[in-house]
Each structure stands twice: as C-alpha cells, then as structure tokens.
Amino acid sequence: MDSKTLRILEYPKILDKLASYTAFAPSADLARRLRPTSDLREARRRLALTEEARLLLAASDLTIGGARDLRPILEKARRSAMLEPHELLDVKSTLASARNLSRTFERLAGEYPLLADLAAQIPPPLGLIDAISRTISERGEVLDSASPELGRIRRDLQTVHDRLMSRLQRLISDPKVTPYLQDALVTMRGGRYVIPLQADFKGRIKAIVHDQSASGATLFVEPLSVVEFNNQYRELQLAERDEVRRVLTLLSQRITENTPELEHMLEVVARLDVTFALAKYAEDLKAAAPSLRPIRPRKGRAHPGSVIRLREARHPLLDPESVVPIDVELDPQTYALVITGPNTGGKTVALKTVGLLALMAQSGLPIPAAQGSELSVFRSIFADIGDEQSIEQSLSTFSGHITNINRILKRAGKRSLVILDELGAGTDPQEGAALARAILAYLLERSVTTLVTTHHPELKAYAYNTPGVVNASVEFDIETLRPTYRLTIGLPGRSNALAIARRLGMPEEIIAAARAELHPDEVRAEGLLDEIHRQRQVARETRAAAEEARREAEALRAELAERLERIEDERRAVLEAARKEAEKRLEALRAEMEALRRRLKRARQPLEVVEQVEEELEAVEEALLPPVERRPAPLPAGTPPPSGPLRLGARVLVPRLGARGVVTAMGEDEAEVQMGALRMRVRLSDLQVAAGEPAPPEETAPAEAPAAPESGLAPSPGVELDLRGQRVDEALEELDRYLDAAFLAGLPWVRIIHGRGTGRVRAAVRDALRRHPHVASWEPGGEGEGGEGVTVAKLGR
C-alpha cells in the first residue's frame, strides 16, 4: 500500500488506537506495523480470525496472561551475558503463558480453528520452565536446590553464622564486657559482624576497629575471638556468590541456545494478542465484518468489477455520538463517484471514510458500518486530499495537488481505488474544470475505481452524461444555514447561493437580478433538484417515523415477552414448590406404610390392605413425578418467531440457566446443547433460538455438531419411554423393543420414566440397561428431570 496514502487517510491513528488494546510491548509494536493486504484470501482469513476472537472474548476472559517483553533479555542472551534472576523469571512467565494459550486452543480447536492454527505455532517450552522453577524462587532468589554445591555452601554458611552469632551474643551478655559497650547489640560493618564499643574504653577489649560513629563516641570493633569465624563466614559468602553466578550462567546458556525458538514464541504470542486487540477494538467501534469481494473485470466493458457498498458507515476517528452515518453504494454499472456540495459539508469526510474503511477491512479489522456492507479488496489505494494532516486543516497548494496526482496516475490500475479531493481546485476555474474532466476521463479509460469531490459545475454534467459515473451530494439545510453531512447518491449538489443570500437578508431586487442573469435551463434544473431533494427529505422523514414506530413496537413486544417470562417463572416456581411438598408428604406416608408393614409382618397379620394402599400411593406419586414444564410465551398475532428454526447447529438460549449454547443432537421433545465445556439435555420447550444468531444453512451443519441421520435410518421412536404402571415383565419387554428401535433410529440417548414406587421396576430397568448391547452407559435423572424416578441411557453405535 502507498505509504503517503496511509498517512493522508490517517491509518496510523487507527493503528495507535489498536495498539492501546494490546497487553504488552511486542504486540503494541506489531499492531503499529500492521499493513493492509491486497490478497483476497488473506484479507478474508484476517477478518475471520478477528471474528473468532470476538466470539471467544464474548464467551470467556482469555488473555495472554503473564507474557513479558523478552526482546531486551534475548538480546542480552545472544551476547552470552549472564541473566539476572528477575529476567529468568520473566522468561519463565512468558513460557508459561504461551504454554497455557497452546493448551487452551488445543481444547477449543473445534470451535475456534483459525485461532487454534495460530496457537499451534507456539513451540514447546523446551524444559526451560522446570529448569527455571528448580533454580529460582518466585521471589527471585536462587534456591538451595539449584546445585548440590550451593546447597552444601549454604548449610556451612548457616552453621558458621550460628556459631559466630552465638559467640558474639555471649560476649555482649558478659557482665564484664557490657559496661564498655555503647549498646548490647551485634551489627555489621564492611561485611563483618562487629559490636559497638564506647571510644573511652578503647583497648579494654582485644579487637580490630572497623568503623566509628559520626560523633566519634562509638567504635565498631571485631573481637579477636570471632575473627576466624568472620573469616570463614566471609569466605563462604564469596563461595556462595560464585556458585550462584555459575548456576545463573549455565541457565543463561540454555536461554542463549534456544533464543530463535523463544523469539518465534514471542512473535506468535504477540500475534495472538494483536488478534485479541482487533476484536476488542471492533467491539468498542460496534463494527461489523464486511463481505470482501474479488475484483473481476467484466469482459467487453470498462467497469473494473469492483464493489463498494457501505451501509451506515461512520468515520472511526470521529465522535460516535455525533458523527452522521453515510451510505455509499456504487451500482453494477458505476465505478466513479463525483461528490459536490458546500464547504464543510462532509465531502472530504465521506472520501476519507470510504478509503479508511477499505484499509481497515484489508487489515482484518471489522468496520464501523452496518451488516451487509461489501468491499472489494484493492491491490492499491491512492488518495490526494488537501488536508493531509487532519480533517480540519486547510488545503494544500495547487502545485502540490498536481505533483501527487501525477504520481497516482502513473501507478493506478484496474485493481486500484483512487480518491481525489477538490479536483481542479486552486487555479483558474475554467482551466481547473477542464483539467478535472481530463483527469477523470483518463482514470475512467483505464477502468480505475475513482471517488472525487469538486466545486466545478461542469463535472456534474460530465458525470450525468458519462457511463460509469454517478453524481452524489452532501446536503445543506437552508433554514439553519448548516450542512446536514448526509450523502445522497444519484443527485448533484445544489448551489444554494441565492437561497442563502435571501436567507441572510439580501435585498430581493438583487436576488431577482442575479436570477435573471442565469440561463433558463439552469433555473429549471435547480428547481427540479430542489423538488427532488424535498421529496427525498419527505421520504426520509416518513421512513424514519416508520422505523421509530417499528422500534417502539419491538420494545413493547420485548417488554411483554419479559413480563410473560416472569409470570411463567413464578407459575413454575409455585407449582414446583407444591410438587416438592407433595413428594415430601408422600415420602413420609411411604415411610409410615413401610413401618406398618413391618409391624403387621411381625404380628403375622395379612398385608393385602397395606399393598392396596401402596398401589394407590404409587399412582398418586406417578401423577406428581413430571417436573413443571415451561410454556412458551405466546407471540402477538402475525408476529414471526424471533429467529430461525431450531435444528442441529443452531445457537440457542437456555433461559433457566441464563446461558447460550449450540444444539448438538435432537430428539422429539429434547435436545442436547453444548455450552462451553458443559453438555446437557434440555427440553425443546425450554430452548429459545438466540436473537440475532441466524440458524445455519440447511445444507451445512457446524463442524462440531454430529452428522444428521442418514436417509437409511429407521424412524425415531422418540427420546422418552414411560413405563409407569406396568409390571416388571411387561416393562422389560417394552424396554427391549424400544431400545432396538432407538438404536436403529440413531438416537444418541433416551430417557426411561419408571417412577419411584417400590423400586422393583427401577431396579429391573437399570439391570437390563447394564446388560443391554446397545447401551453404552446410564445414569439417574438430574434435578428437574425426575431424579430417581427417571433413568437416562446413552446409546452406542
């Protein structure tokens, strides 16, 4: 890409914003070096990578962890210098972070394949993490276990230190010595332990003087009785220092040997962090990934085959609260746009918006525009904009324009996008208009996609009469005398000079005289343009009112649905509480019946009455067994469902858990939903297709979803079998038939309802499941599924 164009379109400011989202210096530097690609496949890969990162960060708080900027450390290691303990800890922290990222994406490879491919480039830790951990503590201290010699030295050092301190303590505690001391304490001077002696008693203790206080009243002396201990202690300290250096040098050599691998690891971690930064920046911009299209020249036509379709596009560097979105769309017959309108009306901003958004898309950064936007991937983008420093600066000179335009004309081709601001300005109007037409014609002959702004009315007529070119204008409000910044495709800008003069109080006779000087065709054309603009304004206001009404209706519908959800939650809570209370009472009654049975049995009384009561009790329990199901909230008449149909691969919301997931298997009444690392069965009535998440196309299911049953499979018997009220032999016979049918239909799991009762049917069912060849495993029903009254069996193929 042309470096001057990148600067003119303020692309470096986008990179600075991007760098502010990175986590450490290498990724910030990498973000500032990011450049647009002209390769369609690479641009699409970058955007897809960013979109994966947006999905990942929406579902987790994954970061690069404790990665550090190792570049100065690796440069030091390359010179074979010894690394300090804190530097080695930085290496360890970065290696651990890289290892965690690698393991995380190995686990998530099915959901985020592009990120997993990038993380797979991280080299293994090479044993350095363990080596550093065995050598250096988290506080940056070299451990005794770093080497056998260091451990021995430190043990000897401790022994000598203890003996030295013991001797000094006895000395300062001696009643004969204490009167001579300034304080009864042991201190250190010059690396040797000493005691504070009053200067007046110098010579009373045989000692070596090492220092004195500032007043001279205290001498710090080393008694001759501890000189040998101090010597041993100092020698061991020096030996410890040398051994620590030897250990650190050996560890540093390992870093030096693996410097290329560590540099590559740092680069991959930085690339992952830049991808996360792209995702965070896109979220803050409320950006959307555009569809990137190839440039396909059309045979026998001048049109280069480029596509520019931006909907509600916003300049990313302007205040999002005040910027006016614009729509820029070139139809299949158009590849040049001529924008006219008043100064400060937004013409230059419109040009910069298109150019900058094209650069962002080709860099892998979603653009601040609505869904459905499309852009071609241009081989090169050129811009000549007078305000090269910023939008508010003044125009450059005519000669500067021509020099830059001449450079652009030499380099632009069919796969280029050329943006020219104020074409033909800065010189004689007649010559400037002629030059502007000639430049635009030159670019059109060479099939170059071109966007220009101008004040020359001749270019309006040229655009109207030339195939492939279309007029556009920025609007101006005559009432407020201020621009609206809206871009209108298909209409040239109006002069507005006479209208503005009248609005500002110019005498009417002067206005009439000026109008009489105009050619009648120009007056009629201006009148037609005024009428068209008025009609467009009426249509825009009508459309805005309709959109506002639609939004209000949607808000009311959402509020109603939320209220119905709350009511349904309260209904379920009340009924569930009643069901659980009934279960508790039944359990208590069952316990009483069992106690009565035991007493009657001991008394050798008949049990027929008790068994009859038990059967009635079991019937009551089975009626209470099913949990309270959620009833779907009714939609208003004529209102379509909020999203697509529920099928394999659909993204769904589980309101009961407040979680989102993906449907990985389906039965008649239930579905299996993957929510992160959790996979669970949920009733279809408890699922909602996630709003704003379109269901996948019918012909392609997500990679993580199991394949749909082949056409040769038997019809499904349903995922639920109810055996309540049956005897054991009847239940087992029906269970066997059902399992065969479920297996042939390819069901992944089934739910058998047998009730609690006396437990005989439950025990028989579970024993049969344990021995059945089609059953891989089984488990009791979960909370809300019926508990011990239900058994869930997973089928194996």
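^ that was protein a. below is b, sequence first then the tokens
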Amino acid sequence: MVGIVIVSHSKQLAEGVRELAAQMVQGEIPLAVAAGIDDPQNPLGTDPMQVYEAIASVYSDDGVLVLMDLGSAVMNAEMALEFLTEEQRQKVYLCAAPLVEGTIAAVVTAASGSNLQEVMAQARGALVAKATHLGLGVDDYFTSIPCPPPREEEENTKEIHLFVRNPLGLHARPAARFVATATQFQSRVRVKNLTRNTEFVRADSINQVTTLGVRQGHELAISAVGDDADAALSALQGLIESNFGESDSTVEPLLFSQSPPTSPSSPTSPSSPSSPTSPSPHPYLQGIPASVGVAIAPIVNFSKAPLTPHHTTPSTPTLLHADNDEKEWQKLQSALLAAQQEIQTLLSHASTQIGDAEAAIFDAHLLFLEDPTILEALYERIFEQHMNAEAAWSGVVEGVATNYRTLDDPYLQERVADVVDVGQRVLRLLLGTSPTQIDFPQPAILVATDLSPSDTAQLDPTKVLGICITSGSATSHSAIIARSLGIPGVVGVPPQVLHLTDGTVMAMDGETGRVWVEPDTNIQASLEVKRDAQQTAQQEALRMAHQPGMSQDGKRLSVFANIGSVNDTNVAIRFGAEGVGLFRTEFLYLDRTTPPTEQEQLAVYQRIAQILDHRPLIIRTLDVGGDKPLPYLGLQSEDNPFLGWRGIRFCLDCPEILKTQLRAILTASSGHQIKVMFPMIATVTEIQAAKAILKEIQAELRQSGISFDEAMEVGIMVEIPSAVAIAEQLAQEVDFFSIGTNDLSQYVMACDRTNPRVANLADPLHPAVLRMIQQTVKAGHEAGIWVGLCGELAAEPLAAPILLGLGLDEVSLNPQGIPGFKQAIAQLTISEAEAIVTEALKQDSAAKVREIVSIFLTPEVGNRE
C-alpha cells in the first residue's frame, strides 16, 4: 500500500490533517508526519532529517507520496531524498497538491489499493470539487496533470574523457575536491578509470572515487545525466585540467617542510646487525625512513586498543538486533554530527600547525562521514537488518577497509588507516568513551604499533622527540604529518620494540631508518654530531626569519602569525613571528557543550601573552556562524550563513557571551601588549555598540579594583565591502584596521569560497580585491592609524611584493609561511614593490597579476628598473 507523508511548518496543523485523513479510512493507511522543529521559542519550521525518517517509516515497494505546505518544507523534502538509496528515490514522489485536500484525496485513493501514480493524480486534482463549486471552471487544468516523468534514458547521458596529470593522481586531497565539485550539481555524475577498465562509480562517494586507483597518466571517463550535466562536466574538466590546484612538484599532499627521507643505505636485515662495510658496525634495527631527523631519548609506549561495538543486550548472541530502529538511527546521526565537529576542529588546528596542504588530509575524513554509499549501507543495516548503531557502523567501516586492503595499489592500501581513524572516532562517540590523549610529562620517543593521522596531528613536537612504529610506510598520512611537524620518524620497525619498557633509551635516525636500543656512547656521540649539524642548518635557515621583516632599503613591515591555541604560539615564535596578528578565539569554544568561562579564557590569554614575552597579541572576539557553527549557542541553520547571523552580529545580540570574553581579555591585558579586534564590522553603529560594551566592562573592572591596560588598542576586521566604503568614518572609531582577505575576497567577488563551482573567483589577488586593500590602507593612514592584513593571502609567495607595495604596516599568516615571506620582501626595495603594485592594479584578472609578479621577479629581467 502506498505510504503518505505530511510535511508542514506547524506540527499542530500536520497532526490535525493526519487525524482528519485517518478518520476517512479508519487508520488503514501508513501515514507519517514531519512537522515543526525542536525550538520552544520558535517551533515553526521543517527538518530534512525528520522528513527522511517519516519517509522511512512508511516506505514500501508500493512507494511513498510526500505532501508539503510551502517554502522550506519543499526544500527540506527535496534534501531528505538525498538520504535515500537510488532505488528508493525512484519510488518516492513530492506532490504539489494542496496540503489538506491533497492528503485526504491521497489516503482515500491509496486505501482502495491504487498505485502511486493514481494516488498522486487524485491528490493533485483534489481542488476540482471546490473549484467547480465556486464556478472557477478549472476542471480541465486539474484533471490533465501528467504522471511523474520516467527516469531519463541512457541516450541523454553526456560523457567526457580526460587524463589526470598531477603526480599521485586522485590521492586524498584531489579526490576530496573531485567529490565536493560533483556534489554541487543536481545531475547524476559517475566516473570510471578507463586505464584500469573499472566499472562506473558514483562521483559523490569519496570511497568509490578513491578506490578507482587513479594515478598520474590514467584516463577517466566522466558521465552526467540531468539538467545541469554540461555545467557539471565543465566544472570537473576545469578541476582536472588545473591539476586539482596542485603544482607540478606537489607530491601527495606532502609539501615537505623538510627534505623527504632517503632510503636505507644498505639492505641490512631488519633485525640484524649491519654488515662490516656499513657506516655503523653496531647492532641496530632497520625500519623504513619516514621523517628526517635524529632523536635520542627514553621511550614511552603508546597503545590504543581498538574499540569494538557493544551487544544490544547481555543475552544477545549476535549484533543483529535492536529494539528501536529509529532510535538507533538517530543515535548514529548524532555521533556523525559530533564526529564532524571534532574533525572540523582538528582540521582548523592542523591548518595552523602544519599548513593547509597537509591539513587537507582531514577534508577526506569529513567527506567519509557524508559519503552517500556509506549512509545507504548504514540505513540498510539498521532498518532492514535491525542492527544497533555501533554494530551497523563497525560493519560498514570494516567493509570499506577490506575493499581498500584488497586493492592492488599499495598507496591506496595505506588509506585503510584513514578509514579506521574515522571509524574509531565515530564508534568512540557511539560508545560514549573518552578520547585517548597523548600527553608526555617529559620529552620522549613514542613507540607504538601504529599511529592514526588524527593522533599524529595533535602531537607536541617539544614533547614527542621521535616516532617509532612497527607498521606504516613513508607515504602514510601519519608520516606526512610527522614530517610537517618536524618530528623524526621511522616506520616498519621490527615488532620487538613493542616489548621494551618505558624509560628505555632509544636512538633513531629518520634519514636512514635505523633504530638503536640502549645505544653505546660511540653511537650516541655519532648521532649527536649528526643531530647538531641538522639543527645548526635549521637554525641558520630560521635565523633570517627571526630578523625584523624589512625591505632591502629598510622599510619595516611587521610579520605576525595567525594562531588558534597555546601550542600554535610556540610554533609561531619558532618560525620567527614578531607577534600574533590574529588569535582565533572560536577554537576555545569548540569541542564542548557550553561556552568557556571567564577564568578558562583568562588562563589561555595570559599563557599566550607570557610565551610572546611582550610581543603584540591581537585577540579577535568570537567569530562564529558561516563556516564555524556552534550548536550549543543556538545558531540555527541558515540558507546563506556567510551573509547571516555571524561575527559581531551574533555577539551584539548575545551580549553576555561578549562581556565574558571582554572581561577575560581586559584582565589579561595588564602588563602585556594585548589588543582586541572585533570581526565582521559592517557599520559605524556596530563598532560603537561593541565599544560601549567594552567601556561598560572597563568601568566594572575599575570598580572592582582589577587592573587592566587602560590604553589597550581597539581594532576591527575589515572584511566587508561596506567597511571599505566607509573606512574613513570607521577609522575615527578605532586604533587599527586588520584586513581579512579570506572573507573580503568572497564578498567582493560575490562567491561562496566553500563552493567548488565558484570558489576560484574568491581570489585575493584579483585587482578588485587589491583595490579594496589599497583603499583601506589609504583611509587608515590618512586617519593616523596603522593597517594590517590577516588573511591567507600573505602565505602566497607571489603576494609578498604586492603587500609590501600597498603600504601595509603589518601582515599575519600561518607560521610556516613567515620565513618565506620575510625572505621575499628582503629582496625588494619599496620603489620596486610599488612599481609591481602599479602594474598589478592595471590588470583584469588574478592570473594576469600573478604573471606580472612572476615576470618582475624573474632573474633575467635584470635590475628591474
């Protein structure tokens, strides 16, 4: 029998319609409601997951008809269909019939045993009687509505063939970008590896795309069926032809911060002493070199027992039973959402700690959680096999991992570690267990069977001096992250190291892959010489980075770091940061269910200020919304979050959160160079309101006798075009501007930088954006205030001459980019930089700007006069 679903903004309305319809057929029809939202203050609304669950509860092979009231009910119903399998979607129709009359007509027709097309036709013609009675004469219109169109024929499929040119093909980051691009279109997109003669797979599945085993030089066939098929194929073609945004020299998402390790110099047996001709005659264990560097320290064994799913009840002999399928599905959805938030936090931290390229590994982790093939398999296990959430998740993850293990490509086999990493994260959340922390009290070498990418990304290089693991390879994501962190590493070490007791002294050479247990004095002395030589070279490379940022002819440009944590501050100082130009305080609010207290925030601000040792610290007040939602703060989903309730808009509407943060910042300012910066300022009224709250807190602290910096500078982020347009007025209200090019670029170019279809437009080197920067600098200087820039534009090598020439006083970027930026501006005079800017502003695209800078910096140009 055909199932019926009622979707409405009002739960009371929907329940009333269901009661009326049920009375017509004595409750014989499978009828479900998806209405209202769980918000006591504003219960009107619809939820796609609620719609999906309602469809699932009445689904059968006879099909389901969904009736909706208006607006978001229609959009969320369409979204709910995305959670269904391809086969199920063919049997679920959204009906444009009037909600009340359509529902009654549908249930009466369904009760008679009619098929889905007949039920839909009767529902859509439900106004005939009323229209006739009112004399509107619209019978023909209502009775001639066609049945739902059949599925598009294969002859409508459009297909292109392309060769993949980037070095390692569709590894983690390119695969993630491919899937993200494909999912932006309504058309059904599929892809196959022609070189390996695979079958077509879904382009919206990160796992299916990755397991195609696409390498450099392989030919792909990409097909699309749908209204926007041409646009989808064009976008994917552009992505592939641009090498997925990777340079020709990029290897994996490696971009080593140090040289990749070399292979062992001799084929010594893994557990045997070296041969007499080997450079080291002393016994050692041979592993695989993974991350260059020497470490000599006591070991600490790290083990993390894999989690396993719980049985539903103690007496249940198998995992194939759950008492409430809906409850298990909801439990799983909650865990997936929590995992998504954790990975997003990890991605943000990793971007600061190891750079965007390496951090992109975790983009693939996020896509794994959204993979439709995964969700479909989970749905089947829970609703058809009646598994509990833990068992369903574990089974699906193990199936994906097994698929990777059986691939011929060794590189793809290593991606099992990422699958297991995500799998264990979600399972931990389902089981409610606490995450395992790697926190050594004293510096040590970590010894383990394996180390997940997530665990590796959170290591503290000052505490973990080396990594020695018995599995893995030099191209594993954990090895890549270790190299980015500058932690020496050897993988594939013989398993006997796992039997060593904590505190045993170990020496390791990440360049040769050799490991010595309790090395004698000669070995230690030899390795110490090598370590000292490496450290001397690194220190020399960083020495220039610790000089003030300055042009060749002495023009100062302060070079600060963007940070998100205390650990980031140490990294920033190591790379030569002259201060912190942006402390993203939203990271303090992540991974928790309540906002941080004043004391919690104060402790962090004071600790960072202490590490900086009187260097400037610019603290941005909470900037949530957009791409940084925090559910516990009551931030609802928005159609366009980047243009919605975010930044200062949220904080002014929730003043207690802002007041708590300002109290902590002001209290920490005593004795330190702390400045406060408000984000997303669009009007003079907003900054005046924020300053009024700041003055209120200052008065409270004075009255309480709490000291603070009375002269603390106040600034704003200039990241909205309106702020540029009224920069002269805003400059009268603040002590400094900091230009946020990440958001300014997308607002100037009217494009969502998270949307692969248009993200390329959000290029901060576009002349339109550069003119905005120039205008802001001019307005600030004319008003007598300093102007900085804290977007990632400064991390692009070709941007350094332009930022110097635009007259900025300060730039702030990821710590890893600081040495390169300082080196770039040190090779230019201010007149040369200004000449580059003059030519750049004449161009009509970002590509031509880059071309101009590249030509100017080419040695053959001579003295560039």
